[in-house]
Amino acid sequence: MSSATCIFCKIIKGDIPSFKLFESDKVFAFLDIQPLSRGHALVIPKYHGAKLTDIPDEDLQEILPVAKKLAKISGAEDFNILQNNGRIAHQVVDHVHFHMIPKPNETEGLGIGWPTQKTDMDKLKALFEELKSKM
């Protein structure tokens, strides 16, 4: 499944050039053209879907092994694997993609805030019960 208007689907088809690092029947990986650091790459399923929940499980099986290989070959000692879903979660391209972003120092690579919430054990236990019952 692909989308005629999707930039990543066009990259997969070769209509838009890319610095392709890996390709299989289900996965495509290439260098990000607006990198946060040297070696920043994207790993995408060839199956078109905007969010992770839109992609069949069998189309996701190679994603993390490929991201792991990219991290190894980049030489990154520290790195982030990032996958965003939806605009308010910072997704810009509506095709599932995983970033492998080397973090060579404090200024290069991914910079994030982590606004933790105060722990409420009763609320956490209720949420746990709710989620566990749906697994």
UniProtKB/TrEMBL annotation:
Residues 7-110 form the HIT domain. The keyword Magnesium applies. Its cofactor is Mg(2+). InterPro entries: HINT, Histidine_triad_CS, Histidine_triad_HIT, HIT-like, HIT-like_sf. PANTHER family: ADENOSINE 5'-MONOPHOSPHORAMIDASE HNT1, HIT FAMILY PROTEIN 1. Belongs to the HINT family. This is Adenosine 5'-monophosphoramidase HNT1. The lineage of its organism: Eukaryota, Fungi, Dikarya, Ascomycota, Pezizomycotina.
